[in-house]
């Protein structure tokens, strides 16, 4: 008997002949190891290997995909246990939180969240009844009991998930102590860091000047000067590479880049460090730093990821009460053609450099990103991101990008998640959707099944390893 | 024998298994009453219950979907009986108009207009041959004869269409006499008004200052002052509520909103009333009034609809000759993320408020609208509007919005029409397309058929009633 | 036995019933003559009728679709024989070029290039094994041998391709000597020119002022004056019409148009001719010339094509080394609603004028282009262009444009190619994708099969002839 929460044919094309091809292609990639080159799991989990505390803490409280949807329908975040910035009272009973969540489960119909959670419920906890107010207690107890068992500790799950390598994301100011602890523990799991310098390259980041000063202390460079500041980055990247880093990651409001003369860049650095800078200065500095980081990548080989286009903290009242990452980040229209030109003029023709572009503006896939990646040797396209890490989002990405960029200017899948139990589900959705897309190409005779099988394997495994140099 | 103009399986997915599911889902919603919470039918029809005069007057002359298409291919509007602004001569023979229309019927291949008209021809007049020059006279005579019969009068059609409730749209300057007449007539049909204040909130509207003065006379408020002007709106909304209004409606060039201090708002009001205002002032005033109206909604419970993004009267020569609403309104790129922020900062977190957003820029569905509606408690997404009230438009809306906003941040269907006989056809298209979409989710195992049946019912009936508080 | 490179059902819908309809529709249009109203083949080929030299020169070296993809993956253009601007050394061995190309064939999986090339390999050279490093020499030798045979000379291929008429594109400065030679040769193939005035209407074009002076010499008009300049265009258009021209073509960075007073236009002309002009002047002048050309079209009947929205030569290092048209032209976001208004205000209501709009910004299909073309008598929509001349691109065009513009505001297919052997393949892809789309409409009962057959014929043949007046 199959578990109805995870039908073996889910996400495959309805047409029987196409479905057959999709099944065969999927059969060859289903069990490949997971390569997770970009994400936000907490390295402390792997270092300490403590149990997850309860179902609400695992599935509801930290997952902005989940609580934003309930919030949109009038549920207070306090009632879901989301911590307040001022430490004020919120719901502390995990079962009460779980019941509220379960009672609103229908809100997730048709969303990837329901796919991910059903996958976790079914594969990890053998649950086979849909979540609802009526089944809330049963699922709560089932999950809660399991979490107390050793095979549900982080390292055991890591191994069960068949993760070959996973990247976390840390600030240059992070001492990487959890990564050190993992390394020192003798455990065989491969967990690497990634260099995410937003706190020290974005003048609008809270505490920017202090962060830069702290970077100087950590590296022993004089970050009050432009050359010292750049040297500090170079040193810190080396340090990150010692803990496995193969990439840097950059989350900017836009894709704007700059390529100023050293003198002009130095003057700009002095302005932003003084705090007497305009919004345009901040944007220019972030843009200049993308080009500087690309130059550093030429030297040290880190792959560069650019994640632009999110209007962060759109809801100031919510931000004040609960802080960042509470579901109030909204995508905006994003230009790449003009924005990336200064960086591309500088390094776009370097075949030894890899810059992976992401977007939250799907109108750029076919118009801008695929033509750029289908030309510049340094560019690759990242997988569908955030709201678009979804069956329809992935399908649109392939349909819009492939004809111009092909498959080999893309880099396989990123789960990009903080939600540990969703990792296998997300990779599985990606493999299924890619196989469904490839099956369509096969039955419409745009690809032979042999070619499709090779591409399926590349998309599920090889391209991520190669693009991220893992 | 089925009528070939309305095949029972129309708009269902071709795959047999998916089609079966769609048929079953549709079978459960096909006969639900029509809830029409937003539209532009003429309340006079229901008040006077006079017969429609002839086929051309019913189907061609008032329908800009129809005559714009013929105009695009060189047919003069005069020859279709469209009245000239100067009262100059136009075709007056309805049969001649009908023949011209019929001779160009092929232009509508692949358009929703052909679906709507074929539905009306078949279900209302038992016509079962395609329209063409050859069949023009036959269909003309069939329809013309029917229109003279009592069962084709507006109230009889209203009942035949199984309309549970329909909203019309009136200006604050309207005395609602036809709504009063309907109420006084003792007829049981539920026809409600909606508050559409464009003539008194848009400084660019013809006769704006005079309109505002007239609003003062009607309400007994001093609309020469900002506070009197706001009070007049409040009073008038109460009056509209007496005639069933549960919503206001706002058709602006953009989605721009403002949230100025009372003093600044008052100064702006004085500028726009003086006529000495800039284009930016007009835009700011419209934006400020959206926020003011949202605040009034918090008090009086009217649901707020925002219909932005149409470049009205793009063709000045045509506008001069024939006036507004002649098919020359063209959608434009529309921003929501920055534009709505002032209003959302003010009232976006109010769970008791409902603001329904529409768009003519489909690139915003997944990028802006679904993330906004999937977060802010006050926001809901209206159905595909105008050019997108079509099978492919509806399909794109579900594919682009559902994964992020879910189904329950949407509000069911609006027919939004002036074309009375198209109402059942439009709701039927919507029900079919939604069932087709849901059937895809079922056969790809993203939803169980039980869940899909519940959602189908919600989309066809319940959500519109709830969102519009009808 | 079917050749696996060109499966007879390729690009048809997977659903068996839909596929059957598509097959029948396609069967009726497959063998229609090719009408190629817009493209960039070299008239010298038809005039001289010399053999193509070798496989690399035919398929790789001149095709930016091909070499840009290899370049994006790190292959140097020098190694593909692409000539350097400075005449420096590049690979000259066609077999070495062919082997490099073949070794990277997998990059084209899922792209239209693989469809086009497989079609040419199979139908022209009877190749039935996929290209790869292993088969490179075999295919090279097969093609090379064939090219030496008389039936592979340009005129023979023209006839074999069943081309009824083909348009090339020439600058007003071109003497059309190859067109004259074709005409004088007595050969029956119909090859016409088209008027592409970019070098003399774009102030940013290399050598603009000299080009305008040269136009004066050619026409005997004083092109140092605005009136003389306009007169020169008029004369030159007459000359082009003698060589069959029925259209002009305009490739601008944006769709901006202007309609200045004669005095202001004259002053602008003087500024751009002096070289003392701003970027805004150049944009205004290009825009003004679109309106001037539209007025000339009213007189001389040339159909006007506007191809806006490409950021040309995005990669300056590559431009410097190899020149134009090397795969570094990137689409940009394009506005039509405001940009075209001056031109449309002037001539948009003229039913005797035909302006064909193209786009590289698919977000405008449904939002801007279809509503404009579904209203203005002078407007028609060109087929999917460049990156979108592809199965998914064509499908999106129909899905996004048809419901608002219908089929009859579109103009059939353009191959728009420099790659002679791809012409039959491109028209075949278009016919297949249109038949697949129409078959979907038939099985979802939006169109009868009779209607679909008529539309298929119109899209494959009639509309191009009519719209281009060929």
From TrEMBL, chains A, B, C:
One of its GO terms (molecular function) is glucuronate isomerase activity. One of its GO terms (biological process) is D-galacturonate catabolic process. Coiled coil: none annotated. The keyword Transport does not apply. Its EC number is 5.3.1.12. Keywords: Isomerase. Pathway: Carbohydrate metabolism; pentose and glucuronate interconversion. Belongs to the metallo-dependent hydrolases superfamily. Uronate isomerase family. HAMAP family: UxaC. This is Uronate isomerase. It comes from Salinarimonas soli.
């Amino acid at each position: 008997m199959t578990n109805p929460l995870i039908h073996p044919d889910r996400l495959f094309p309805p047409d029987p002949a196409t479905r057959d091809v999709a099944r065969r292609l999927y059969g060859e990639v289903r069990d490949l190891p997971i390569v997770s080159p970009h994400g936000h799991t907490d390295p402390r989990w792997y270092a300490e290997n403590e149990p997850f505390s309860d179902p609400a803490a695992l599935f509801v409280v930290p997952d902005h995909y989940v609580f934003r949807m309930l919030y949109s329908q009038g549920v207070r975040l306090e009632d879901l246990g989301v911590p307040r910035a001022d430490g004020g009272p919120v719901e502390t009973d995990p079962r009460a939180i779980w019941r509220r969540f379960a009672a609103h489960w229908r809100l997730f119909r048709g969303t990837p969240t329901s796919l991910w959670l059903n996958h976790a419920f079914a594969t990890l906890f053998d649950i086979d009844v849909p979540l609802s107010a009526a089944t809330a207690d049963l699922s709560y107890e089932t999950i809660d009991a399991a979490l107390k068992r050793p095979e549900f500790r982080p390292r055991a799950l890591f191994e069960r998930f068949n993760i070959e390598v996973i990247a976390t994301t840390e600030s240059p100011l992070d001492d990487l102590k959890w990564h050190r602890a993992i390394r020192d523990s003798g455990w065989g799991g491969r967990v690497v860091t990634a260099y995410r310098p937003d706190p020290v390259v974005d003048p609008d980041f809270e505490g920017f000047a202090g962060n830069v000063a702290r970077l100087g202390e950590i590296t022993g460079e004089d970050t009050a000067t432009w050359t010292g500041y750049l040297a500090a980055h170079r040193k810190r990247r080396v340090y990150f590479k010692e803990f496995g880093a193969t990439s840097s990651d950059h989350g900017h409001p836009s894709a704007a880049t700059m390529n100023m003369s050293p003198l002009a860049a130095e003057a700009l650095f002095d302005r932003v460090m003084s705090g007497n800078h305009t919004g345009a200065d901040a944007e220019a500095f972030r843009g200049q730093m993308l080009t500087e980081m690309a130059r550093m990548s030429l030297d040290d080989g880190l792959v560069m990821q650019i994640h632009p286009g999110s209007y962060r903290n759109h809801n100031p009242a919510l931000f004040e009460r609960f802080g960042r990452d509470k579901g109030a980040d909204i995508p905006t229209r994003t230009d790449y053609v003009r924005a990336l030109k200064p960086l591309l003029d500088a390094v776009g023709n370097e075949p030894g450099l890899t810059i992976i572009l992401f977007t939250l503006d799907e109108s750029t896939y076919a118009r801008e990103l695929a033509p750029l990646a289908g030309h510049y040797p340094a560019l690759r396209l990242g997988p569908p991101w955030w709201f678009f890490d979804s069956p329809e989002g992935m399908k649109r990405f392939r349909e819009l990008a492939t004809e111009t960029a092909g498959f080999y200017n893309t880099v396989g899948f990123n789960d990009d998640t903080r939600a540990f139990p969703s990792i296998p589900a997300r990779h599985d959705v990606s493999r299924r959707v890619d196989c469904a897309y490839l099956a369509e190409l096969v039955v419409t005779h745009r690809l032979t099944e042999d070619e499709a099988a090779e591409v399926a394997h590349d998309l599920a495994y090889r391209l991520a390893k190669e693009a991220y140099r893992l």
